[in-house]
Fold these 4 entries.
Entry 1:
Amino acid sequence: MKLKLPEFSTIILFALVMGVFWGTWFTLSRSITAFSPQTFLDIGQTAIRNLAVPMRILMPLSLVSSLILIALLPKRSAAFALAIAGFLLMICALTVTLTVEVPIDNQIKTWTVATLPADWQAMRDRWEFYHALRTFVSIAALASVTASALSSRSHSTH
């Protein structure tokens, strides 16, 4: 019973983070190479503005919720191992975000069509590769914490 709220909040928060990554990948990233420079800048700069603050809140909250869940789970249980895996996967997604995505975003924020660097397409492609990577890592993180909750349920009913 005491696990329901931490499990629920962790799953919801991981789903929100993963949803931001998935939505961007599914709707934009798979077509990003076809965008004109102006379209790329318009969409990219708008997304950066819209997502910066919410993700600065969602990502830390998801990790804190996950840590609370981990602290409450019985050690040496499948639920504990799965929750740890989910937490570590979300840390990987955060690491990709902070070390690759945000530095590129910070450059894109300042670009105009007239000031695009000569290698802007290579930077766009690097951003896209790592965005896809963190998207699928975040899906695995969500799957892990969901499996953790299901695992803890099956043990508590037997």
Entry 2:
Amino acid sequence: MGRYAPAALVAALLVATALAFAYTEQLKLTPSPIIRTTVTKVFSPVCRCETGTAAVAFSLRTADRVEIDIVRGRSDVVRHLIVDRAYPKGRLEVTWNGRDDTGDVVPEGAYKPRVKLARQHRTIVLPNVIRVDATAPVVQLARLSPRVFSPDGDRRADRVVVAYRVSEPARVALWVDGSRAVLKKGQKTKGTIDWFGTRDGASLPQGSYRLELEAVDLAGNVSPRTKPKQVIVRYVALGRKRIEVPAGGRIAVLVLSDAARIDWKLGARTGSARPGTLRLRAPFQPGRFTLTVTANGHSARAAVIVRSTGP
């Protein structure tokens, strides 16, 4: 009998191998008991945002008793989401908050859902990877120009261009005086944002504004804002707000504007000129007048006090 033992063992091994192969092939041909799977790709368990949890959803072909775990690697269970609970045929969805069974946030990395179906004696590790990312991106304001602009629609210095770099793919937002003004589309790690002097769809008045950048990565982590940079919205400005001049005297006032031409009015007289030093003759009668300078629909004013030249 002893001499037949090795042959019997080999035969048994061959039969077992053949049965295992046949079972594996049968599983390949058997439709999966789980269909229409959707799993969150990346999330942040510390962001306190809409992407603060991961969703695991699929449909059961038949009713079963289900167990769902989150595993790292091949079989390292970090969280039991569902333990031996009966579910009917149809859609099933659970969420994971990125914490283990003790309530601690899990380390950053890749995880997968594992589904056990008790009645079918099946254990399926879903191929969908869930990436836990709890690190905020870092955004840098690389360049900003010009510092003075006039968003008046004449295509001359109408916008500020802000160039940025981000440490990882993220959406970048421009904040103006503490309010978000522009949200850049896409998640590229470098690019530019154009700001046309608007916020909440409305044009801002002439003045000084503080610009900052903020980035939100794919998981929902928010970066610290960049150091504020000042820019000036200027449509038209005069070098002096009050001008005193003798009757019929000469007036010279600096006009700052990006417009090609400006219009002026002093008393009953009007005219047009280029920005720069505006030279006019004062009225011949004493009194108080207003010099109005207009550029592309925006105006600046100065008081003109004309003194008498007599004794």
Entry 3:
Amino acid sequence: MDVDKGLSASPKHLSSKYFYDKKGDALFSQIMHLPEYYVTRAELEIFSLQTQIIIDALQLNPNTYFELIELGAGDGLKTKELLRLLDKQKYKFEYIPLDISLNVLENLEKSINTDFPNIAINRQHGDYFHVLKTLKDSHHPKVVLFLGSNIGNMPDEIAKDFIAQLGANLNVNDKLFLGVDLIKSAEIVLPAYSDSKGVTKAFNLNLLTRINRELGGNFEIANFDHQAEYHEAEGVAKSFIVSKCNQEVRIENLDKSFYFSTGERIATEISRKYNTRIVHQIIEHSGFQITGMLSDRGKYFSNYILTKEA
């Protein structure tokens, strides 16, 4: 089990994929609207102000049916800007949002059906590649959206493998619209992962609450804190849960206890920042080529158009 493996390791770690239960979904929605969290605003600006440029860059044909697949769709805030114009211009497509959270998908489907009754939506719950394999047999053109710099939650080697697997499930001329957070100063980045209202702290510590609820843990949440760090030269933001004291935690479903010393950290998330050189390294040997790029006015964020060429 991931929790047992992670808390038994040295140093300790927990996977960020477990952030997203119902409470975690709600907290992340709050994070996206915090003044410190520039990531969503910067990408939303691209989708809001450059919508037609996105459509043109993706080389979409109004008369050719295509599948618009979104990995980790969330609440669809940014994607709805694109859907609105595609709907207005009468493009022929099906919207296929994928997410690990069924709660998020159910809410998204309701909002799409309300806001865009003419758009066909086919929600998919579960693992990205399991779903993509089922779609591969379809020979319709595909546009895959992977937004919010979600790729940045993976170490570079895993990200390379992820992009390669993604390419293996697409056909020649299919597109990947990849959103990445750009390398910038700590003064801008660090507050986005340690906000003044403590929402990010609550989001991080909710991992422990979830272990208590679902695995019979007895974490005393008040005995742990949230910590974020970022070094511009490395270009990676990291989040940790930190033990405030020497303590022992029992997890009944694992029939096991775990020991924490004062200041000991549990790594919970990384958030890689990018530039074009790093993106080129990530997509090397994947069959993708960069065929376009859009950025917000502040140059905080970029969306790369990657085309499957082999």
Entry 4:
Amino acid sequence: MKISRRKFFVKSGGTLAAVCAGGLLSTILNSCKGNGPSGPSNVAAMTIIQASASNNEISISLDASSPIAARNTRAVIEYAGQSEAILAEHNQDDTYRAISGVCTHQGCFVTDYDGTNNVFVCPCHGSRFDLNGNVVQGPAPSKLIQYNTRVENNSLIITL
């Protein structure tokens, strides 16, 4: 069966376009994967604390049963009917830090922590943030918001 040069190029072009589209789709899907074979080896889910906000503040008890009572600990604080999240950290120097727990990529909650690299990890697409909320690895386009903290009456107060 003979085909004209024009039909050959049209069919070849269509096949090439399909192959390229498949490769592009594969690249896009792989870029949004979580921890792959080259991902961190020490990623664990953080404890989740349920809280509520009042007067633009969240108060978390720091009694002995609190997951952030001890130094060098972290937890996810969910509030506003579980539609918002904050990452709370009790630092080695006995200070506290609070940053948004909502990934700037697609709004997933950042719930994992990589203890080997000291980064927060979004389980949805693998974005990684340093302890100040700066993007270490995308696809997240921007850093996480920081919140002011203080300790009063054995409670961590986070100002929203």
